[in-house]
Structure formats: structure tokens, C-alpha cells
Design goal:
Shape: elongated
Bound molecules: flavin-adenine dinucleotide
Number of strands: 19
Order of helices and strands: EHEEEHEEEEEEHEHEHEEEEEEEH
Number of helices: 6
Strand content: 25-35%
Distance between the termini: 22 Å
Oligomer: single chain
Largest sheet: 7 strands, mixed
Length: 304
Amino acid sequence: MHDVIIIGAGPAGLSTAFWCDELALDTLVLEQAEEIGGQLHRVYNPINNYLGLKAHNGEELLERFAADVDAAEFDLWTQANVSSVDLKARRILLASGEELQSIAIVIATGVRARDLGVPGEKEFAGKGMIESGTRDRELFAGQDVCVVGGGDAAVENALLLTEVCPTVTLVHRGKKLRARREFIEQLQSTHCITVFTESVVTRIIGDEQVEAVEIKRKHALKPFQLAVRGVLIRIGVEPNTDLFREQLETDERGYVVVNSQHETTVPMVFAVGDVSNPVAPTISSATGAGATAAKVIASRLTPR
Ligand SMILES: Cc1cc2nc3c(=O)[nH]c(=O)nc-3n(C[C@H](O)[C@H](O)[C@H](O)COP(=O)(O)OP(=O)(O)OC[C@H]3O[C@@H](n4cnc5c(N)ncnc54)[C@H](O)[C@@H]3O)c2cc1C
């Protein structure tokens, strides 16, 4: 029996564990991946918005987090495959057959990038699918590319790619781009970007490598093909709540609903970080939420 079991070892889960350790709670963190860090592994841009410290990318920030994690005394199991969770009973069953029990559970499972779900997307992974405009820019230098999406991430990546690509085509399902004004203004003054709104990519085409995308415009009768060598998809994220969705309240998109103390609708079950924060999914919100949840749990376990 542990005091606290935390599911997920991204910034939110690690901060919760760090604070639980500080508050002398017996804590176990379960992480499904081989390594801790969550989305930090995919942050190739400089991190300039975490108060008090700057990092060239997510890996560098993670190194700082890891130094504190190593010094703390909580248990951390990576490659922990949770097969089911009974939130009310606060019992967790691992794929290995092991059963775990705790007084409190903290859900810190974050979000995952949404797939486009079209033919070619999976087949061309590593063969023309661009993972990041920052990281992969040099690989696609001199090539025509397509970016799918209309929010900040899509437009920011499209702008980055214009620095090295002769043409960048941005394809967005909606009528208007949703990105922040600063990005839209930059985009309007960049000549090598073509924007197709009310349009969808329906297929990614090629032989060994990506060679074209098929685009369907809203009012056009037929789709057309556009020759590109790279495709980057940024159409948002979805919360990792499949394990719990039936057992607690979530919003219409599946994000866990919490109160200001990060409590879910199930007693002694908390949620922190992006999985419960569609409004401000940032590293600072995630680490702050972890501190709050740990303090609330400690206050519930310590007799006054
Ligand atoms: C490209 C990019 C750039 C970004 N830039 C910035 C920035 O400049 N500044 C900023 O503040 N934020 C930035 N962010 C956002 C920031 O990375 C996230 O807000 C933060 O990582 C959220 O932390 P989290 O712990 O809630 O979730 P995550 O980082 O998503 O971590 C969740 C963890 O839970 C694990 N997990 C999921 N399901 C299970 C399960 N069933 N069992 C066990 N483990 C599970 C996952 O493997 C993962 O390790 C960026 C994100 C991206 C993708």
C-alpha cells in the first residue's frame, strides 16, 4: 500500500512526486515509456517561458528535472504498462499481473498529438513525414513541403520551414486560421507560403518517400495533387484518458474535470498537467498543478 501512486512521469507527474517526497509521502510513479519526460522529448524549440531558467530545448530542461528526481526518494517504474485502474478502490493492475494499491491516485498522463487518419500517414513515417519544423528543417532544406493545421503550432512550424524551403503550403480545415495574431502577421508578409483554408489533406502519396499530397477543397468537385517532399501535421492534441474515461467526469473532448485543488469527481483521485488543462497546457502550469495536488493530498493524510 502506497500513500500516492502517480500515473505519468512528464513535468506534471514528476513535480507531484517531487513535492510528495518533500512532504514525506510514500510515493510510486508509473511511466509507460522507457524514459521519463513526456512531451519534453518533443520540444526542440528553446524554452524561454519557464520562470527562472532557460533551456535550449526540452531535453536540456529534462536534464535539470532529472537531477532533482535522482536526488529524491520516491519510487519510479518506467515501462510500467497499466492494464486497468479501479479509481474508486484506488487499485491498479499492471500488464505484468502485479496489483498495486494506494490511498491517493494522481493522473498525470498528458496528451498525445492527434493523427490525421489518412492513407500514407503511418506508412511514410520517417520517409517524408516531418516531426518538427525546428528539428527537421535542415533535412527538408530546398524541398517543397506541406503543413496541415491552422493553430499556433501549425503556423509557427510553417514559418520556420519557409526559412529553408522554396514553398510551404498550409492546409487548414476551417475558414480562418486560429493562430495568434503575431504569427498570422508574419505569415502574411511571407511570400513563399500558400494557404488553403476550408481544405483537407485526404491522402499522402509516394513510392519509397513522400512525393505528393492529395488536397480536397470544400467546394471543389474533385481533389487535386500537390507535389511535396515533406508533410508536417499539427492538428492539435487529445488527452490520454482512455484508461479512466468511464470512471470520472471528463469534458466533451475527454479532458479530466478537476476543481481548484486538482481533485477529480472521484474521492482521493487527482489530475494534474495537460490531461486536465486544455486552456493553458504549459510546463509551468503542469509543475504548479503537481505542487498543489501533493499539498492537498498531504493535508488529507496528515491528522490535524
Ligand atoms: C513541440 C512542443 C513545444 C512545446 N513548447 C513549450 C514551451 O516552450 N513552454 C511550455 O511551457 N510548454 C511547452 N510545451 C508543452 C509542454 O511540453 C507540456 O505542457 C508539458 O509537457 C505537460 O506535461 P504533463 O506532465 O502534463 O504531460 P506530458 O508531458 O504529456 O507527460 C505525460 C506522461 O504520461 C505518460 N503516460 C501516458 N499514459 C500513460 C499510462 N497509461 N501509463 C503510464 N504513463 C502514461 C506519458 O508517456 C508521458 O511521459 C510544448 C509541447 C510541445 C509538444
